[in-house]
Specification:
The complex is a heterodimer of chains A (299) and B (215).
Chain A (H helix, E strand, L loop, with lengths): L5 H8 L3 E6 L8 H10 L5 E4 L11 H12 L3 E6 L5 H13 L4 E5 L20 H14 L15 E6 L7 H12 L4 E6 L3 H10 L6 E6 L5 H10 L7 H9 L3 H16 L6 E4 L5 H14 L3
Parallel strand pairs in A: 1-2, 1-8, 2-3, 3-4, 4-5, 5-6, 6-7, 7-8
Helix pairs in contact in A: 2-3, 2-11, 9-10, 10-11
Chain B lengths: L1 E5 L2 H7 L5 E7 L2 H4 L5 H10 L4 E8 L5 H9 L2 H6 L2 E5 L2 H10 L3 E4 L1 E11 L2 E6 L15 H4 L26 H11 L3 H5 L23
Parallel strand pairs in B: 2-3, 2-4, 4-5
Antiparallel strand pairs in B: 1-6, 6-7
Classes of the chains: A alpha/beta (299), B alpha/beta (215).
């Protein structure tokens, strides 16, 4: 069987898949990020490249993906949001991604403009993530664009989406994941998870779906960070015990990584396909976290 | 109702800086109901513009309707002729109808905010974006176009917390409201349906409706 990407192959054939995440720089130079990509290259199957995350302007995702792949050989997962581009721009970028050799795409609606560093800008949201997945499905399977016009060479990308297992109510999120699966999402990466009980319940609710789940993993680096996340990140549930341990720990980063290894050890035996490791702006800690997880022998 | 809000008086003074004689016109319908352009607000405005000669004040029932506006302006022709500028306390439609019917400088005194519901006087909520393609039948009677900041059509984004919106934690997530309403009214099947991208062509401005029988 041939696979579109190493990620698709890993999800189909490996027991446990690990992806990472890199944020393009707020800079016209890619060099520092390439150093980060090299740091995580041997630890992950592929890395997400975020798309103006939290609505802040950074280097174009498409160009960043291309430069990472070309200059480091690390496979990328091209994150594409509906916030900044209308259906014409989204489709032309998808065609370009394929031509540039990008093999994976992660479709998101995107944070709202008002949460970022250009809050006065016009939000686009011409499509939502489900509609963009539908658009890609038509492009790939029927070889047509949204207007029904033929594409001489259709794109061939391995398509994923996002899901947040900690939301309340959860039912609309499950229904949305059902729609995403119907529209061709083969894998889904989750919001950061700290409570295995939340995941267990969620996995039961989506057992009817043929979507590989990569659980979002972010080590907590301080009690302050943990409290901030609980207050500001939708669906993030952090057990009080973790916050206490961080408060008491001498080396908070070490303790944060130790705790996340414990979380992974609890969730690894479930039906998840793997994990997605994110540490904003800290590729070194993505590498350190993955190494700690692998060294512990839990996966 | 069209919900309006008073412009800051400094902004109005700046707009009127080249005009000495001012006619103030209010709106007897939406702006009167939201207490931004009724009799009382027109009088207040006249008192605030102390450095101007106020040549007249009037509240027109529907300044957005050319027929009534034309009729009522006839009764005020002396003040209209004397005025350098007309200050209008109505939505932008009333302002522009006055532009079409007079050769005067016309200045807006209000900001037109949204199509909304009145909870109490002073408490108004947006409920419609006049998108031209009503889908309330598909969304439990709650409009995601005007009440979700992203205008999503296929359920909530993952940004809601305690059922509040990621853009403003004081506001309810429209899609959580839709979900609950549709669940309670046995419409979850409809909630689960995929909704295709919207057709923006049908709402390209400027919109107009002209009945063939009206020509």
């Amino acid at each position: 069987m041939s696979f579109i990407s190493s990620l698709e192959k890993s999800l189909a054939t490996s027991k446990f898949t690990i992806t990472g995440e890199l944020t393009p720089p707020k800079s016209a130079s890619i060099e520092d990020l390439l150093d980060g990509a090299k740091l995580i290259k041997d630890d992950v199957v592929a890395t997400n490249v975020t798309d103006n995350p939290t609505s802040r302007v950074v280097m174009s995702t498409l160009a960043t993906c291309h430069l990472i792949e070309k200059q480091t050989g690390l496979e990328t997962i091209y994150q594409i949001t509906c916030r900044d581009r209308n259906r014409l721009a989204l489709q032309s970028d998808i065609l370009a991604a394929n031509a540039l050799g990008i093999k994976n795409i992660l479709v998101l609606t995107g944070d709202h403009i008002t949460l970022g560093d250009h809050p006065e800008a016009k939000p686009v949201f011409d499509l939502d993530s489900v509609q963009l997945l539908w658009t890609i499905k038509r492009m790939q399977e029927e070889g047509i664009d949204l207007a029904g016009k033929k594409l001489k060479t259709p794109p061939k990308l391995f398509v994923g989406a996002a899901v947040n297992p900690g939301l309340d109510p959860i039912e609309p999120e499950i229904i949305r994941l059902e729609k995403k699966a119907d529209m061709g999402a083969k894998f889904a990466q989750t919001q950061c998870l700290y409570d295995p009980n939340v995941l267990e319940k969620f996995m039961d609710q989506i057992s009817h779906l043929n979507v590989k789940i990569l659980v979002g993993i972010t080590p907590l680096l301080s009690a302050g960070m943990a409290k901030w996340m609980v207050k500001n990140c939708p669906g993030v549930i952090i057990p009080d015990e973790m916050i206490t341990r961080l408060k008491e720990a001498e080396d908070k980063v070490k303790e944060g990584i130790k705790m996340i290894v414990e979380v992974v050890s609890k969730i690894a035996p479930t039906k998840i396909a793997g994990i997605h490791v994110m540490v904003p702006e800290r590729a070194d800690l993505v590498a350190e976290t993955v190494k700690a997880i692998k060294a512990s022998g839990v996966v | 109702m069209i919900i309006t809000e008073k412009k800051p008086i400094e902004e109005i003074r700046e707009s009127l800086k080249d005009s000495k004689k001012v006619l103030i016109i209010g709106c007897g319908t939406c702006a009167a109901l939201s207490q931004t352009g009724g009799e009382e607000q027109v009088k207040e405005m006249a008192q605030l513009l102390t450095d101007k000669e106020i040549v007249g004040t009037m509240v027109i029932e529907t300044p957005c309707d050319k027929r009534t506006l034309k009729r009522d302006l006839r009764t005020a022709s002396a003040s209209l002729n004397a005025a350098d500028a007309i200050l209008v306390l109505s939505c932008g439609v009333g302002v522009q109808t006055l532009v079409e019917l007079t050769g005067k400088v016309v200045i807006p005194g209000l900001n037109t905010k949204f199509l909304g519901m009145t909870e109490h006087i002073g408490e108004f909520y947006q409920r419609c974006l006049a998108c031209g393609d009503c889908i309330l039948d598909e969304t439990g009677g709650i409009c995601p176009i005007s009440r979700c900041p992203k205008g999503l059509l296929n359920g909530p984004c993952a940004g809601h917390m305690e059922e509040k919106c990621e853009v403003d934690r004081q506001k309810n997530c429209a899609w959580v409201l839709i979900y609950k309403r549709m669940k309670d009214t046995g419409q979850l099947d409809k909630f689960k349906a995929f909704r295709k991208p919207r057709n923006y062509q049908i709402s390209t401005p400027p919109q107009q409706i002209v009945w063939s029988s009206a020509k």
